[in-house]
Automatic annotation (TrEMBL):
Lineage, broadest ranks: unclassified sequences, metagenomes, ecological metagenomes
Domain spans labelled Acyl-CoA thioesterase-like C-terminal: 155-286
Organism for this UniProt entry: hydrothermal vent metagenome
Record's protein name: TesB-like acyl-CoA thioesterase 2
InterPro entries assigned: ACOT8-like_C, Acyl-CoA_hotdog, HotDog_dom_sf, TesB_ACOT8-like_N
Chain intervals for the UniProt region annotation (Disordered): 1-21
Length: 292
């Protein structure tokens, strides 16, 4: 028997946003709606749907896909566990709108658990996305932070950019210096981001926001070309105090690359709060075919 966990959203137009506002659910949370199909000890299955508000150019926004997998894992695990890291592999584009997510726990210890989730389209015979997650019962230990956020203008002094992807109407992006496709062999780039309308920050939101940086290739050649994230890892450093302090404020995403060649390049980013708290570090490996 299918048990609804959250209400589903039906479209990405203005009426949908009005409906979300009336129900009290943010559009992002509606897009992560899951229905429980089956559950046993340390194993669960859910059904979801590709949401039009989180479409990229030709496929779902990778940050949404990763967040959906994280949501399924957190639904299945003990509520005391926190997400420490999530690695999402993008094997293919899921077919159709309906999705199935199968979640399993590979190992459960006293303080740390290892989970995996596989996303399959209704008409697919093989996985479209897969994720492995580390979860833990966090405890107080020695803390430190290496590095610091770049010195950039405040978000109020930066312009919002309009992008053609549907998800950019749900996530606001304000570059701090050059526009995303300014030709520059140094691919360092930073931008302020947040959900619009505002949404309180949590680990699921951080996973989605980790995929907001424009592809490094665009910085190198100054134009859009076909690219595809093959794998993305998100390390979550934020504490409950950090989430409370940030609320729904802007976050600074500082992005850089190291090297590209022979069809792949890397991408690294850190996400900072306005007051300089390091919340996330993340990395990707990205496929491309541009030759010049």
């Amino acid at each position: 028997m299918v048990q609804p966990i959250r209400s589903h959203a039906d479209s990405a137009d203005g009426s949908e946003a009005d409906s979300a506002q009336q129900s009290g659910a943010h559009l992002f949370d509606q897009a992560l709606a899951l229905a429980q199909v089956n559950t046993t000890d340390h194993r669960a299955a859910y059904e979801g749907q590709v949401h039009p508000a989180f479409k990229n150019i030709n496929d779902p926004y990778g940050g949404w896909s990763a967040a959906l997998l994280a949501r399924a894992i957190l639904n299945a695990c003990d509520s005391e566990l926190e997400l420490v890291s999530l690695t999402t592999d993008y094997l293919s584009v899921p077919s159709g709108g309906r999705l199935q997510i199968d979640v399993d726990c590979d190992r459960s210890g006293r303080g740390t658990e290892f989970w995996r989730a596989v996303l399959t389209g209704r008409a697919d015979t093989s996985p479209a996305n897969r994720a492995i997650a580390i979860l833990a019962r966090r405890r107080d230990t020695l803390e430190w932070t290496e590095g610091s956020p770049p010195d950039v203008p405040s978000p109020e002094d930066c312009q919002t950019i309009d992008l053609p992807m549907a998800w950019s109407r749900v996530i606001e992006i304000r570059p701090t210096v050059d526009l995303p496709m300014s030709i520059n062999r140094d691919t360092n780039f930073s931008a302020w981001v947040r959900f619009t309308p505002g949404r309180e920050l949590d680990s699921i939101a951080l996973v989605a926001l980790a995929d907001t940086p424009m592809p490094r290739l665009f910085q190198v050649i100054g134009r859009p070309e076909p690219v595809a994230t093959v794998s993305m890892t998100v390390y979550l450093h934020a504490t409950s105090a950090d989430y409370a302090a940030v609320g729904d404020d802007y976050l600074l995403v500082d992005t850089r690359g190291a090297r590209g060649g022979r069809g792949f390049y890397d991408q690294h980013a850190t996400i900072w709060s306005r007051d300089g708290r390091l919340l996330v570090s993340t990395q990707q490996i990205v496929w491309y075919r541009t030759t010049q």
